[in-house]
Design a protein that fits this description.
- The protein is mainly alpha-helical.
- Helices cover about 60% and strands about 5% of the residues.
- The protein contains 8 helices and 3 strands.
- Strands 1-2-3 form a 3-stranded parallel sheet.
- Helix 1 runs antiparallel to helix 2 and helix 7 crosses helix 8.
Length: about 170
């Protein structure tokens, strides 16, 4: 009985440890919401990614091309990729729906090899939908059929199946 109780308590201690770690991450996310300094936001975002990696998880950074601090200093993406983060580009950014800066950086992330996937960022069945044919066509025309397949199918499938995603080092920002 004592062994069973010890085993049960150990499981709860591990869960409590995770809850504490996620609470710290949540606190940092809440700190970002009140900040206006892009340097502060960039520092907190990096700390959050480090915390997630320390938990043994691999963060997927959604639409980094839309973050002002990344637009101002894309070299932060060098660090995030070296840390082990995956960068997911928004289809709306590639299609120019969020503005010229977002579009330019999204194209650059694909061209430099930073993007691991392109996703819809769907928010409803009517706005920002999951329909991907337009971005598939754009990727095939602007990059290649292989790029479209990797970014829209192969890498997302590997992520869903918890398979290893590897690629060559990107062309680092300077």
């Amino acid at each position: 009985l004592i062994k069973r109780c010890d085993k049960l308590l150990l499981g709860y201690e591990e869960k409590l440890h995770l809850v504490e770690r996620f609470s710290r991450i949540k606190e940092k996310i809440e700190q970002i919401e009140g900040r206006t300094s892009q340097e502060e936001i960039k520092k907190l975002a990096t700390e959050i990614l480090e915390e997630i990696l320390e938990l043994g998880m691999r963060p997927v950074v959604a639409h980094p091309e839309r973050y002002q601090y990344v637009q101002e200093d894309p070299t932060i993406l060098n660090l995030w990729v070296q840390m082990g983060c995956l960068l997911q580009i928004n289809k709306g950014s590639l299609l120019g729906r969020f503005g010229p800066y977002e579009r330019r950086l999204a194209f650059e992330l694909v061209d430099r090899g930073f993007a691991f996937a392109v996703a819809s960022d769907a928010h409803s069945p009517m706005v920002r939908t999951t329909w991907m044919q337009d971005v598939d066509r754009l990727l095939r025309e602007e990059f290649s059929g292989a790029a479209a397949e990797v970014l829209l199918e192969r890498n997302p499938k590997k992520l869903l199946h918890n398979e290893t995603i590897r690629w060559s080092d990107p062309h680092w920002f300077r």
